[in-house]
Amino acid sequence: MYICCFCFFACQQTPKIQKQPSPQKEIQSKKEKFSFLDSLFTKNATYKATGFDFPVGKPNAKNYYNAQSFTENNHLGDDWNGISGGNTDLGDPIFAIGNGYVQFAEDIGGGWGKVIRIIHQYKGNYYESLYAHCDTISVKKGNFVSKGNQIGTIGNANGMYYAHLHLEIRDQIFMDIGSGYSQSTNGYIDPTLFIKSNRNESWQK
Ligand SMILES: [Zn+2]
What we know:
Elements: H1 2-18, H2 22-43, H3 57-61, E1 64-68, E2 78-82, E3 93-95, E4 100-107, E5 114-122, E6 125-134, E7 136-137, E8 144-145, E9 150-153, E10 165-170, E11 188-189, H4 191-197
Antiparallel strand pairs: 1-2, 2-10, 3-9, 4-5, 4-8, 5-6, 6-10, 7-9, 10-11
The site of zinc ion has 6 residues, from loops.
């Protein structure tokens, strides 16, 4: 009898509690995040992106090669390596691919190491560039950067790999860090294709 009552109330109440609109809450906070960025880039219009360059061997990735392209082995980014191989590129500069706002710059350890995430407002849309396994980080959350500014150096995620830069470009900007690999590329775009297609400063919509 007691058990039945308990079940009855538990079943009645649990869905109510779970129905508290957390998805709606998330949408709201996403809206708030976008309106924060909208006003940020309106006030600091010089940091709107006008075009993109490669993050190494400025501006054309000179003396670097892409060792693992976007979607190769389900890779969600590009892996930039110095042409001399091994750790010869350890400590080389990493440059912001475009004007933007540093959203995140921290050592999160594991397979990621030190990670920098930059938000770009470009032709009215938002993109994120993500730079991983850095040896050093020279920007902080809240900084503005211009295209070609040095933001850190190439690392090996505290010895996990040969030094290289893992670069992602996302067209959904509030996603979790992810795993760097997935069969689904939803929210991710081909970094090399994107940079090559958006180089021209004077390009106007
Ligand atoms: Zn990678």
